[in-house]
Amino acid sequence: MRVRRIIAIARKEVLQVVRDPRSLMIALLLPLMQMFMLGYGVNLDVSHIPLCTVDQEGNQQSTDLLKRFSASRYFDVRAVATTLAEVTRQLDAGGCQLAVVVPRGFSRHLADEGAATVQVLVDGTDSNTATIAAGYAGAVIAGYSNQVQLDAIHRRGGQIQTLTPVSVQSRVWFNEDLESSYFIIPGVVALVMAIVGAQLTSLTIAREWERGTMEVLVSTPVTPLELMLGKLFPYFAIGLFDAAMCLALAVGWFHVPFRGTLLTLLATTSLFLMVVLCIGYYVSVSIRSQVGASQVALILTMLPTTLLSGFSFPIEQMPRFVQGVTYLVSARYYVTILKAVFLKGSSVVELAVPVACLALYAAVLVTLAARSFRKTLD
Amino acid sequence: MFGRIAHLLMKEFLQLKRDKSARFRLLIPLVIQMLLFGYAATFEVFNVSTAILDQDHTPESRSLVAAFVHSSRFQLTTGASTHRDVERAVAASDAQVGIVIPAGFSELLRKGRSSPVQVLLDGTNSNTALIALGYVNEITGTFGQAYALDLAQRTGRALGQPLVHVDMARRYWYNPNLNSRWFFVPGVIGTLVLVTIVNLTAFAIVREREVGTLEQLLVTPIRPFEFIVGKTLPFFFVGLIQVSVVAAIGLLWFKVPFAGNPLLLVAGTCLFLLSTLSIGLLISTICTTQQQAFASNFFVLNPMFILSGFSFPISSMPQALQWITLVDPLRYFLIIVRGTFLKGVGIDVLWPPMLALAAIGFTLLTVSILRFRKALD
Prior knowledge:
The complex is a heterodimer. Chain A contains 14 helices and five strands.
């Protein structure tokens, strides 16, 4: 192995990237775009739920109840309907996501039977938002119910103080305000690494084949290992640069807390970069067209990183066999590490298991990639 | 004119027919992605790993613990005998929720006073944590209210019956069991078709240019408009086939209901395909190599995907981004797909997104034809 030859290959690769505007765009613009799109666009926090109210009762009590909804910061009253047909239309068209119906006879039922029902109709299409919205609606109605109860008891001269005797004192760790951007953004680093790393390297060998320079390359004394190291080194540097850029944006722009150490992040990011770079290189050797290689690389890296890494969809809620599949996805370990390093401030020791898995993964892929290239032309 | 278009169509289909790997490439990734999304994309919260510490050891505390354990939302994963155990379990991610019922819990309850339960949450996944906290509140609320009423009746402090209360009857329309899959699977139809059709169209034209056959075609008497029609029409059919395949998987495999009018979905798909083909065409006029086309596609398609409301609600985005979503054809197509699949609404509700889709489609088509002509000169 000659260092001189590795440097020569690396220099050539750098020139190729610098002179190809699209590669540069992927290397520099893509991380920015991903961070901003996902940082701003991905928000699972539910507030200002568009609400439609129907007051079929129309007296003081029903007005009081509905006032609690308009006062809540979780709801925006968008429509006041008079008939159920109107409610149906609002929900059908998506103008409102939730409708509260106070039925006729509400106060009478409450006075005579001691129980009355408020109807809440929820657009369940977006099941996640629906769950959260219905929870907030339930809390508003429970609050009203308690008030009514207490009033009734006090009117009779009763002396009960509270109807919610169990109070929940919640403390949230690691993401104290339950900001969904804090949860999403650390994972974006993995997504960017996966896309940039595998995309750029998927072109390197395929390009030689397409441009007919492979013959020249094969006739040089360079060994397969030297070739791989020389080809991958520039992309490794680009990957680390992108990671630094993402970290700066995450902390400086989106104010995501970073509680771990840079060293842990650097070490684990290097491991993950090795994995994705080798995936891209392997694909590039196997598929000799640039377009084909980049498409396959995209499916192999971006898809599992988006869906199976726990980046946004929690792994523990997936069906058992899909959970099994996630163990084969390298991004799973890296996303776990990223979230822990950013939010929990975990050290390498605490992250021993995912780090070891990632290292094993990297070792296997480096071996595979190193053995994939043969100096033959067929 | 039709003769020339027909010839070009023939050539395209022949090319597609002889390209054995194309048939594989066009369908297999689609099916894999559909299955992945169907199984992996979920925001539901069940069986949250939980550590419960009961320091009170009374019938009251035990029945509250039972209420948590029997709820299907929480699953006891680690035992805890001290406060530190609970904290350690949450810190080590052995439990996402830690619940501590402190000593003296039932004594305060019996006195009719407010009695605290401590809840410790791992907020790393904010969405799961928020929903889990909602369930904690619901369970303790129900428990507390039943207890308070019972106590008031027994001690006579409520003075006379009956006690009044207001219930909530909640009904979820369109997706009664709040199945995440019903939300994601119809959406996947839109995103997959967007990605494959834009890629196919852009590559097909750029490839002709790269290989040099575009010039050959242009010396024939074919006109730019005819060329575009002949070139894109095959992909239009490919798109329709893909939608049918993916929709069939959604209906038959994932058992997502289809409540609306299939013809309406077909009409919406045609309008959406118009937009996707035009975007592909437009990209092909900007790029000279397939590699460039691939990179450009990524930069165009990724924001379209994120801003479409596919998995993240548009109403929660910052206002500026919400405005940008207005020109995203995928956004409108998703309204149509979910409207026909889940809501079963008709044209009376879906005409605005249809109209928007048509407007975007025709604008894009006009621009791309104009640009395409210029690119040829």
